[in-house]
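A.,

Following up on our hallway conversation. C-alpha cells first:
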C-alpha cells in the first residue's frame, strides 16, 4: 500500500507521516526532509533553497525523481507537497491543513527560529510555492479535489491525526 501525505509547510506532514509509517510497519520518505538536506548541504535556509529552486528547475526535479522512485516501493508512506500530482494512483492520498499561525509556530519550533521570522517567511513561501508549481507542472497542490481525505490538524495531536487516517484505511478510504 502506498499512502501519500501532502499539505502546506507546518501542517504536520512529517510528524504524522513518521508516526503512521511506524504504526503500520511501513517505510517512510519525506520529500521535505530530502529538500532540507539539500539546503543544509548548500548551506542555505529552506526558504533560500526555495528561492534558488524557482530559478533552477533541477532542484525540484531531483526531489520529484526521488519521490517517484520511492513510490515504487511497497508499503510506504510518502510526504511530499506534489504527491497528489506525482503519485496519482496512491492507495490513499491525504491532505493536511492547519491554521496559518499554528503552522508558523510549528516551523519556528522545528527550525529553532523566531515565530515572527517563520511567519513572514511562511507567508512568502506559501505564495511562491503555489506559483512555482502551478507554472512548472500546472498543479495546485492545495486543491483538495486531488486527495481522498482532508484533515485539519489544528488542535489535534499527531496520534489523533494518525487515528483518523487509520480509520480511512480500515474503512476503505473514501
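Then the amino acids I'd put at each of the 174 positions:
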Amino acid at each position: 500500500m502506498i499512502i501519500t501525505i501532502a499539505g502546506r509547510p507546518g501542517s504536520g506532514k512529517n510528524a504524522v507521516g513518521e508516526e503512521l509509517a511506524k504504526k503500520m510497519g511501513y517505510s517512510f520518505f519525506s520529500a521535505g526532509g530530502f529538500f532540507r538536506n539539500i539546503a543544509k548541504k548548500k548551506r542555505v535556509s529552506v526558504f533560500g533553497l526555495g528561492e534558488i529552486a524557482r530559478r533552477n528547475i533541477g532542484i525540484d526535479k531531483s526531489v520529484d525523481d526521488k519521490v517517484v522512485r520511492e513510490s515504487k516501493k511497497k508499503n510506504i508512506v510518502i510526504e511530499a507537497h506534489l504527491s497528489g500530482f506525482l503519485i496519482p494512483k496512491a492507495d490513499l492520498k491525504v491532505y493536511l491543513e492547519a491554521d496559518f499561525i499554528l503552522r508558523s509556530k510549528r516551523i519556528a519550533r522545528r527550525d529553532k527560529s523566531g515565530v515572527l521570522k517563520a511567519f513572514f517567511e511562511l507567508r512568502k513561501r506559501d505564495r511562491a510555492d503555489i506559483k512555482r508549481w502551478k507554472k512548472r507542472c500546472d498543479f495546485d497542490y492545495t486543491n483538495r479535489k486531488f486527495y481522498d481525505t482532508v484533515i485539519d490538524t489544528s488542535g489535534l495531536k499527531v496520534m489523533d491525526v494518525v487515528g483518523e487516517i487509520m480509520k480511512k484505511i480500515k474503512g476503505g478510504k473514501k
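Residues 2-170 form a domain with the Rossmann fold fold (CATH 3.40.50.300). Curious whether your intuition agrees with the design.

B.
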